[in-house]
Amino acid sequence: MGLDRYDILADRLNAEPAIFKGCSSSELGVIVGVAAFVWLPVSLVLAGLMGAVTMGFGLAGVGVVATVVVTATLFQRLKRNRPDGYYQQRFVIWLHDKGLRPSKLVRRTGSWDIGRTSALPR
């Protein structure tokens, strides 16, 4: 292995690589976790009402897979031709607009100046 090879190595990447429909592994992990948190109790209750509790696990599995595909497709559309971290910043701005969390992003419009009103003495 010489230095003239142009291999893409994981330690040289600026962002996590997309592994499924434009989502990184950490994004998919969050999607799967939230989907399982929602689908598992819902499907177990529905299957229990029908008298087959064990079918709830299968229903939860189908629900989680469907949720991952749909959510990853939505993220793919949201992230298209946008910089890394775009939707995280949009989410922070949305939380700020709703008054749920203060934003550390600069959201001022208008002209900027350096704050001086007169020239400095020499």
What would the keywords be for this entry?
122 residues; mainly alpha; 51% helix; elongated
Describe the protein.
With 122 residues, this protein is mainly α. It has a domain at 17-97. It has three helices and no strands. The termini are far apart. The mean pLDDT is 84.
Write down the overall geometry.
elongated
> Which parts are unreliable, with pLDDT below 50 for 5 consecutive residues or more?
none
Strand content: under 5%
Structural class designation: mainly alpha
- Estimate the mean pLDDT confidence: 84
Number of strands: 0
Q: Number of helical segments?
A: 3
Helicity range? 40-55%
Oligomer: single chain
- End-to-end distance: 61 Å
Rounded to an integer in angstroms, the radius of gyration calculated over CA atoms is: 24 Å
Give me the strand/helix succession.
HHH
The major pleated sheet works out as:
none
Describe the protein's topology.
Layout: H1 25-49, H2 55-79, H3 86-97
Brief digest:
This protein is mostly helical and 122 residues long. The chain has 3 helices and no strands.
